[in-house]
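An instance as discussed:

___
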Amino acid sequence: MEILEVCRRYGSTGGNIGEMQQLTKDDVYRMASEGEYVALLSYIGDLESFSQTMERCIGNGLHLAGYPGDTGSGNYVLNANGYLVVNREAEHLDVIREYIALLLDYENQFTVYGNSVRRDVIRDCVVQDEYGGGLWQKKGKFGDTDVTSELTLKADGTSYLEEYMAYLESCVPQPEYPSGISAILLEELLPYFEGDKSVEDTVRILQNRVQLYLDEGN
């Protein structure tokens, strides 16, 4: 109930959408540190985006945390492009195994622009510039040439690699609500946020409808 009340109390005070879209990430983190936002949603794609997020958090007195929950870290893995799934009853499983092995091959995992699923590749993607001494991240390949980008580093010149590896270990697949439950939430929360229903009635109806949905075996 408390979360719903906070969302309704402060949600209507948000700025103009057009103006908000003009804000830079630095602006948003600064505004969060000044108390204008309760929380920020961070999508982390690779070591560099993690490093930038950590740098902005530290610089603004913020902390990287997962979604609130009773267990676990609250850090979730998601893939907007979907996942490769193989039916165990599929034909030509030997060919499929070879294909998956090729996808996960050490050298091929260097071509996925920082999104490798292999821990050894993630570590080996961090290389030192032989001239300037800085740290770079291998992002992929352009022909036979490595594509690299300079890493955001800590104040002492070291990388956020170990923190990133620990973060990855804490991540679990993002849970998905059944579409029926999502529809119930949307239907019942809308009148609450419009001020037409009390928080007590909203929570009671939500609990009853979701429980009925689950009892029916959906």
User: Anything to note?
Assistant: The chain has a mean pLDDT of 87. Residues 184 and 209 are 7 Å apart (CA to CA). Residues 2-77 form one domain.
